[in-house]
Write a structure and sequence with these properties.
The structure holds two protein chains of two kinds. By secondary structure, chain A is mainly α. Chain A is built from two helices and no strands. In chain B, the strands form two sheets. In chain B, strands 1, 2, 3, 6, 7, 8, 9 and 10 form an eight-stranded antiparallel beta sheet that branches. Chain B has a two-stranded antiparallel sheet with strand order 4-5. The chains are: A mainly alpha, B mainly beta.
């Protein structure tokens, strides 16, 4: 099956890079519990 | 007929905008040519070929910056993985994807880095020059989000 980037962006690998860099992940939400 | 200066190409790797560090970028779309010559086609006096698997490449020259979340940190975080690259011919304050400013999207395997030593000579800017192997077909879109 052809991988088309339109299926999912950012990909899981993209998100892993963002986490390593400490950058916010698009679509991620911060809950009050996370802030505590 | 419109022509465009090639001084404002946009590049994102793993959603991180690295455009400010790019001094040269070349996206080469290519595919394998699969030979389909058969006995019945010999009268055409030539080999025949069909499109095989795509094997594109993305070559980028970067000015190095080791600050947090900048070019070298991003590439090191992506090293050894397959991440998404977005390329637009003209990046602006608000980049609109259109027929005259299409969006190219491709997965790249970050399989080589040159964080030090390119060129590595006194008096030159520290920079990196890399060619990444594409792990997907290049998607060309005239709508979408940069």
């Amino acid at each position: 099956m052809e991988l088309t980037m339109a299926d999912k962006y950012p990909t899981d690998a993209d998100i892993e890079v963002l986490k390593k860099l400490g950058l916010p992940v698009p679509g991620a939400t911060t809950t009050k519990k996370d802030e505590e | 007929m419109a022509i465009y200066l090639d001084n404002n190409v946009g590049l994102k790797i793993a959603t991180v905008d690295l455009s400010a560090y790019v001094t040269s970028i070349t996206l080469t779309q290519t595919f394998d040519e699969v030979e389909t010559t058969a006995m019945s086609t010999s009268s055409s006096a030539s080999h025949t070929f069909a499109k095989g698997l795509e094997s594109s490449t993305l070559a980028v020259d970067f000015l190095n910056d080791w600050a947090a979340s900048q070019v070298q940190a991003t590439l090191q975080a992506a090293y050894g993985t397959t991440v998404t690259a977005l390329i637009v011919p003209t990046k602006g304050a608000t980049t609109t994807i259109s027929a005259t400013n299409p969006l190219f999207t491709v997965s790249i395997l970050v399989n080589n880095l040159t964080p030090v030593g390119a060129p590595g000579t006194p008096g030159d800017y520290a920079r990196s020059s890399m060619t990444f192997t594409c792990n997907s077909a290049v998607t060309y879109a005239t709508t979408g989000t940069w």
